[in-house]
Structure prediction request, 429 residues.
Amino acid sequence: MRNSTVDLLRPELAVNGGTPVRNKPWIDNYTLGKEEISSATKAIASGYLSKFEGSFTPDPPFSFLGGPYVDKMERAWEKYYGIAHAVSVNSATSGLYAAWGALDIGFGDEVIVPAITMTACAVGPMIYGAIPVFADVDPNTGCIDPDSIEALINDRVKAVLVVHLYGFVADMDRIRDICKKRGIAIVEDCAQSHGAKYKGEYVGTLGDIGIFSLNVNKTIQVGEAGVCVTNNADLAYRLQLIRNHGEAVVGPAGYSNISNILGFNYRLSEVHAAMAIDQLDKLDALTETRLEMVSYLNTNLSSIECLDIFTPSLEDTCVYYQYKLNFDEGMANISGPDLIRALNAEGLQFFGGYTPLYFQPTYQQRKMFKHGYPWSAPENAGSNVSYEKGICPIAESLTSRTITSEHVRPPNTMQDMADIVDVFAKVLG
Ligand SMILES: Cc1ncc(COP(=O)(O)O)c(C=O)c1O
Prediction:
């Protein structure tokens, strides 16, 4: 399939009134089965939907650390990832917020985050008074670019958030090298990359804290949940304190490092924890199906010249939370959004790229809290952060030239993947 300029005015295209390739609706993510139903039922029948207690020496059966399913889930995560501590939370957003608290990020600090990612990634540091600084990304993976991190480093930078976006993996060797030299902490957001490996090692275990999401769209999911992992016992304890009203616990516990220990309720229910254990058991099989689907699409779309299909290094295991392509708008002489409209009219459900977070009013107006905090805080006065258009040119360009699909996952089948190939052949062939 060779092509250069694409004519989207052809009458046979569904976008112009032609017959669509596919009429069948797409099925949303649903990864639960009889195992989760049985586990959830047992958790409910146990009589306790949560056994968390927000104090240091509660009476049994309640505990500051939660109940038996929460405990079992956390131990399962530790075993799977080969890491010392897992701390469950009720979302990855909660986990991200707790991570900045645990790392004692605060006023006067800057945290480098990728320009394109989910919105909570940049909000977390601000909750503690720190300033998010946006780094550009790798055009192939959408993950944070080490060169851009390096260019943004100054004495105020205390942490870098690495997001392993779309199930791809960031260049961790270089990022760790840059951060280690300067004592900068690394948080890995693995919401989209359960089970992904960088050079044979699980992402999430390569920085100071790794965070996973089990929200309804994720590779493994229980509706809403999250997990933080770390090899550092003090960080794990601080995550537990922030998860569960820690300011009430530190006194009786005799814990003196109380900065940032304002505890929230980030606790996970026993029912969600019970289902999450079964989901983790299914992770490898679910990923394998995704990889088969991606391999089929890559093989069958590779001859379309205006599609740029990225092949990760063989040393890495990318897990394809979404199928992501870059589209050469110049070669095809049409825009990414116009292509997506034409593809979706044929029965697909593709999306464009992320819009850089700094275009949000929060950053443009520098106002997260009243009086322009955290930017207006005296401790942040020396921060030279910019949120101008043009600061992350690759991220900005990816918004229109990225096309993504969520459908490389069960319960979709190879027949559904064949529909995707047929639609691309019709529109771009
Ligand atoms: C990269 C990334 N980080 C964080 C989150 C937040 O996850 P949760 O919905 O569990 O709070 C998401 C969810 O979409 C995400 O994709």
Notes: The longest helix spans residues 270-301.
